[in-house]
Amino acid sequence: MADDPVTNAAKELFGFSYLFPYQRLVIANILEAAVAAGIKIHWPDDGSTSENCSNDAADAENDFSDREGLGRQIVILPTGAGKSLCFQLPAMLTEGPTLVIYPILGLMADQERRLSEKGFSPVTLRGGQGKEERDEIWRKLRAGESKFIIANPEVLLTPPVLSRLKEINIIHIVIDEAHCVYEWGESFRPSYLEIHKIIEAAASPLVTAFTATAGTTVLDKIEEYIFRGPVCRVIGNPDRKNISYATKGCILRNLAVRDLVLQSQRPAIVFCSSRQGTENLARYLRSETTERALPWHREIRFYHAGLSREEKKETEAWFLNNTDAVLTATCAYGLGIDKPDIRTVIHRDCSPSVEAYLQESGRAGRDGEPSKALLLWGPDDDRSLSRAKTEANKKRISSLLAYARDTKKCRREALLDLLDYDGERDSPGSSCCDVCDGLSNTHLREENSLLDFFRRNKRCYSPTEAAKVLARSENIRWSEEDAAEAIEQLIKMEKIRRVSNPFWKNKLTIKP
Q1: Rg (CA), the chain
Q2: Are 27 and 90 within 8 A, CB to CB?
């Protein structure tokens, strides 16, 4: 410790008594590049400065294979591995501000709150700020009163902001959740494809892109759109050993979520693909849990990008401080917001890629305690696949659907293979996944009950009649509408059929 100023600084400034190996490597790379660019390092213990990193073990841990890439890094560390410290600690040791680019306002607000709680006085650039507010931000930066600038790509690319970047001497540009460059930039966030303009305008010697998950294709796109030149890749093991993965086939997704929430540990988050879906599901869960007179039925809310800033703040604060909460959300919530004790993550809808799925499921168990990630799949996923607009999107969705329906391969191994991860892999522990535990199957959860019903009641009921009978069943707690929808899906899947004989017109039977 006495000979390690980096670890001493982490303890002095952030209260951490040790650094993980990958954190140590990334920080050493940043500090070495800073020194090479003529930036002094200010150690907090005695106020001294240094112009080289040889005395803090940087040389021993640094693995830059291309010196032209010095100061340019793509860092892949799993959720909970401490990515933020990798740029926050160097920011506190070097002269000049660090610009951190985030994808969404909720994440910007969360990071602003966390930095402010540590006494680091960040400034935030966002849309809608008046001249006086902006002038005060520029004044603080020129006076050295703030070490962190928080912003999103859109506000940075506006001409008034872009023209100011170079004059405030930004030394380090950080792109957090960098997989958004590919997943969002090529679809609905074109500003992500122009981040290179921000880097060029600021003329910063240090640029680091962080993400929790990225396969080879995503890594190549990050390099292409952000760095446009030599770059170092630091790739940590993306496996989260404390998360148990499982998938479940279903026809009635809201019903499946209801039952999983009732059976699972909380706090829980349920990811949906649309804003309306989060609201509908939250209302449905509230009504269902109220009927059962559960004490936590009021602990269910929704979150998406369409909420006002005040609504988002209120919901974030409620969820962060609630140990019994259930939050239905779009991907607008999951990115980087730190609630360490989420025990269960359920995906009502399939994510658009394996990277997105691992980012979102990685919200679970950031405190290292056992947690679960459950992915629902069903016949409507094939319709979503058919609506994909590009072959690249179809490939990403079909890969995740194949993972969801596979009952033979360990979930952890399958996810790592989809990421093209070729590093060391830890042996799976107990409760690794539903496949390793012998609990996986290819059936839809409603299928066996319905087939058994029609096997025992051949040619007895029409779809409408069967739905009424099934709604009174004690085996599955569902409505008549739920039963009718499940029956219709099994007819479409040709698992049951309408009888053609006029003596049993419109009656249903099992398909041989």
Answers
A1: 26
A2: yes
- Where does 37-185 have alpha helices with state H? 58-61, 83-93, 105-117, 131-142, 153-156, 159-162, 180-183
Percent of the chain with pLDDT over 90: 52
Give CA–CA dist 69/75, Å, rounded: 13
User: Helix and strand tally (H, E) in the chain?
Assistant: 22, 17
Residues 6+ apart with CB under 8 A from 376: 247, 248, 249, 250, 253, 256, 257, 346, 347, 348, 349, 350
408 pLDDT above the threshold of 90:
yes
More confident position, 128 or 100: 100
Q: What is the 3-state secondary structure (H, E, C) of 409-448?
A: CCHHHHHHHHCCCCCCCCCCCCCCECCCCCCCCCCECCHH
Q: Which tokens in the block code for residue 239?
A: 């496996």
**Is residue 250 within 8 Å of 444, Cβ to Cβ?**
yes
CA angle, 153 then 159 then 164, to 5°:
85
Confidence of residue 328 (pLDDT cuts 50, 70, 90): very high
pTM: 0.80
CA separation for the pair 337, 219 (Å, rounded): 23
Would you say 375 and 247 are in contact if contact means Cβ atoms under 8 Å apart?
A: yes
Q: Measured between alpha carbons, how far is 281 from 414 in angstroms, rounded to an integer? A: 29
* Number of Cβ within a 10 Å radius of residue 497: 14
